[in-house]
Amino acid sequence: MSESKQATKGGALTGLRVIELANERCAWAGKLLADMGADVILVEPPSGDVAREYGPFLEDEPGPDRSLYWWHHHTSKRGIVLDLETEAGRKALRQLAAKADILLESEPIGSLAARGLDHPELLAANPRLVYCSITPFGRSGPRKHELATDLTVLAAGGPVWMNGYDDHSLPPMRGLGNQGYAIGCHYAVMSILTAILWRGASGAGQHVDVSLHAGANVTTEAGSYVWLVARETVQRQTGRHAGQVPSMPSQMRCADGRYVTTGFPPRKPAEYASLLGWLREIGLEERFPEAIFLQMGAQRPSLDLSRIGQDEEVTAIFGAGREALCLIAANVSAQAFFVGAQRAGIAVGAILSPEEAFEDEHFKARGMQVEVEHPELGKRFRYPGAPYALQKGAWQISRRAPRLGEHTGEVLREAGI
User: Which of 199, 17, 31, 36 is closest to 95 using CA atoms?
Assistant: First the structure.
């Protein structure tokens, strides 16, 4: 689909104008808004945002317009250059903000106030503006001026503690891809959309203050709550949820040496029937004496899992389901295990590399691969598609990431600047 044809589709946020001050901490939030149809104006300094130099690069050749990191985080945006060190640049930003719906920034606290560009000034000129700040520890509190990176956000917030292996002589794991920043961006987008709904009822904009640390801290499943309520610490476990008490291992090595996560063993009669049928289909039933318990599970009207450890039959049925999955995994390839379990209606996962996941037929079927045109290169490239599915309002990547200052003249003319 050509860029012009893509742009004709209407997204859920079509009609909203966003001013985004380029910063890696808020880039993902701007992308989410842009791909949902908002007109996101990315403002960079004359030297360009530093993230233009982040690898990896197209064909491993560094360059400001070859950063795949930049490409991914800035789709569907228009890019302009303003020098906020000059009065002319500051004036232009004020004029843009006066006609915008949303301003998104992650600048050091105080830097915009020193230029007369903070939320009190911009909201005074445009009371309907939703001004969103994303900072390491929020705009208030004793830690507001502390520096942070994505690593320290995840480590101090708790997710790093939650991730790793049963062997605690190994260090905990940090999820890659700037997940700390991404978490904060998701909370920012949810808050921005809530503020837009409120504006629709009240007519008033507001300042939204997002703390990356707080966002990471509440994204720890039950970890933070267990500590706050019970004063107990959860422990990281290989391939499964962190918990106060160790749970049974869920990752298995398949016949081809690859690993899978056995996920949730059967819990309903129909699932036990499907698992038994799968065993028979691949000729493993005779090697599994506990198959009788699968038959019992399939014949029961229901299975009360709260009785595990108390009811011998329920305990045996549940255990047989887990052991059957382990037996199958040890005798088939990881891909065969994954496909067979999906066919049987049992939730499992194969441990894939990013490249393998991107090429998986299930991801392809849901539209994960999206082609985006790069006219300056005369090529089209495959990008990751929508991270969600909406019942109404089209999601799309309407254009590739902007080159430095690509739309400056266009945007300023539209604004009468």
Answer: 17
State the pTM of this model: 0.90
Same domain, residue pair 161 and 283: no
Record the tokens describing residue 119, joined without a space.
């939320």
pLDDT-derived band at 362 (thresholds 50, 70, 90) equals: confident
pLDDT at res. 264 = 76
CA separation for the pair 364, 367 (Å, rounded):
5
Could you tell me the two tokens for 256? 């081809």
CA 106, distance to chain mean position in Å, is 18
Per-residue pLDDT band at 4 (split at 50, 70, 90): very low
How many alpha carbons lie under 13 Å from residue 152 in its C-beta half-sphere? Answer: 7
Place of tokens 């309002």: 393
Whether 132 maps to a domain, the answer reads yes
Three-state DSSP class for residue 412: helix
Task: Please give the Cα distance from 252 to 271 (Å, whole number).
Answer: 20
Confidence of residue 8 (pLDDT cuts 50, 70, 90): very low
Domain span including residue 196: 3-220+363-414
Instruction: Let me know if residue 117 belongs to a domain.
Output: yes
- Tell me whether the omega of the peptide bond preceding residue 289 falls within 30 degrees of 0, making it cis: no
Distance CA 28, CA 183 (A): 9
CATH number of the domain encompassing residue 61: 3.40.50.10540
Cα–Cα dist 264/322, whole Å? 8
